[in-house]
Design a protein that fits this description.
Mean pLDDT: 93
CATH class of the largest domain: Alpha Beta
Order of helices and strands: EEEEEEEEHEEEEHH
Largest sheet: 7 strands, mixed
Number of helices: 3
Number of strands: 12
Distance between the termini: 26 Å
Strand content: 35-45%
CATH topology of the largest domain: Nucleoside Triphosphate Pyrophosphohydrolase
Radius of gyration: 19 Å
Length: about 180
């Protein structure tokens, strides 16, 4: 494994918005080649698997500009700069499923964030499981569907779940359930 650091020779551009920072740089690789390289810095992401009474609960689809249509996803979002990923979970569950802060017990799937496209972005993904108390009512208008949290339910869900981050969190949960 080559752990050589590629020095930044100069910065071509820095464009900052409320959503991301785009950076263009000239880097020199370990063979002396100068490369023009572009990267995006974004806030970390949080994806939550809400489970209630043995079923995964998915909120109503949200419009995704990147694919030009609403998509079925697990609750998730960006982690504000002043919060740890676990602290962002309650706000996301309230926004997407109208759950009060005390409605679920939350457990992380990963302590260190998974790199999302590490060649292009500094963004990390944190996955959580939220066990929703059985007596908590989730407003029907906020729920697109539920899937049994068993092998058959997961197979059915994977047929309609297109978000790679959501699929990764679901698969990681599945692996941890099996104790692999």
């Amino acid at each position: 494994m080559n752990s050589c650091h590629w020095p930044v020779l100069d910065r071509i551009l820095t464009l900052e918005t409320q959503w991301l920072t785009l950076i263009g740089e000239h880097l020199q690789d370990d063979r002396g080649t100068v490369l023009e390289y572009w990267r995006v810095e974004k806030a970390d992401s949080v994806v939550i698997l809400p489970i209630q009474r043995g079923h995964l609960v998915l909120p109503v689809p949200t419009y995704r500009p990147g694919v030009g249509k609403p998509t079925l996803d697990f609750p998730g979002g960006r982690c504000p700069a002043n919060q740890l990923p676990k602290q962002a979970v309650a706000g996301i569950l309230k926004r997407e499923l109208a759950l009060p802060e005390t409605a679920a017990s939350v457990a992380p799937l990963n302590q260190e964030g998974w790199a999302i496209n590490s060649a292009f972005s500094n963004q990390r993904l944190y996955g959580f499981v939220a066990e929703i108390q059985p007596n908590v009512e989730i407003p029907a208008a906020r729920v697109a569907g539920t899937y049994r949290a068993d092998l058959e339910g997961l197979h059915a869900l994977l047929k309609v779940l297109h978000c790679l981050q959501c699929r990764l969190v679901l698969r990681e949960w599945q692996v941890q359930q099996k104790g692999e």
